[in-house]
Amino acid sequence: MRLAAIIIAIFETVLASSEAAAITPYSSSPFRQLIAIATVPARNDVPLYFSIRTGTLGSGKTQGVASEDGFYYQASGAVKINTAGQITTLFPGDGMFMPAGTRFALKADGAGQSPTYLQFLLASAPGSEPAQPIGTSVEVYRSPSPLPGLLPGSNLLTLNRVAVPPESPCDPLHQRSGVALHYILAGVGAEFTVTRARARPPGSVSYEPHGLVYQWSNPGSKPLIYLVFNINPKGVPPVVDPDDYDAFLANSHVTWAIYCIALSLVLTVLVFATTSVDHDQKTDDRPRKR
After folding, report:
1. How many domains does the chain have?
2. What is the mean pLDDT of residues 120-144?
């Protein structure tokens, strides 16, 4: 019984130290719709910045080469996009990942249309401009500093659409294991941090760096709809409880090392216990002198 209690205690300690408590902020709730997801590798320690561009396509065909990793999001109208011979039609609310170096051709899918779009990019240098802008575009936001909280290896890049019902209260306080951007499409949201409360109308951008504790609500009478552009270490939840998150354990190599140490401890206890039982058994089996 004592051996079983020791083993259970060891595993409970390891699990408690590596698992974040389950929380359900709006960006992790059923209100979320995943638009696109991709794994992006490290860039030889090149600092990365979040950038958002908005643009309009003309009636003709637009061709170019993606200069940065990122997501193309169709805001209005419909387009046909050709990448490596594969043609995809994107309608309002659709999006796709375009890695750096992707050759593409875009054309409005419908006469007389001027489709609008958003690009959520991983920019490599402050103030850099795309080598070949898509149609008429302008940068509307760039993060003030390089993205923190990422691993040297691969990281997960996601774009989600979140629709929060009217008069919804604040979601739980939470933070990002990486970094996130919120781009408001419709409605007016309220964002709260320890030091401020701000109203976020359509077109506004909210930057949530690594370590910032915050929450959202929708006090209005109309749905709040926003896009979440997020990057986090692969294998680590994008949203974590600020009380339970341990940045030390965000590194998967460290986490595996802790599990290996715990397993070694368990095996050591088992071997020690087995050896003790065998020794006691042999002692009991020896003939006793009268």
Report:
1. 3
2. 77
Does 176 fall in a domain?
Answer: yes
pLDDT digits (tens, 9 = 90+) for 224-248: 999 999 999 888 899 887 765 444 4
> 53: closest CA among 35, 40, 72, 78?
72
pTM, two decimal places: 0.74
Residue 135 pLDDT level (bands cut at 50, 70, 90): low
Mean pLDDT taken over the chain: 78
In a domain, 239, yes or no: yes
Residue 287 counted as domain residue: no
Residue with tokens 């389950």: 22
Considering the domain architecture, whether residues 11 and 140 belong to the same structural domain is answered as no
**Could you tell me if residue 177 is inside a domain?**
yes
**Same-domain check for residues 30 and 87:** no
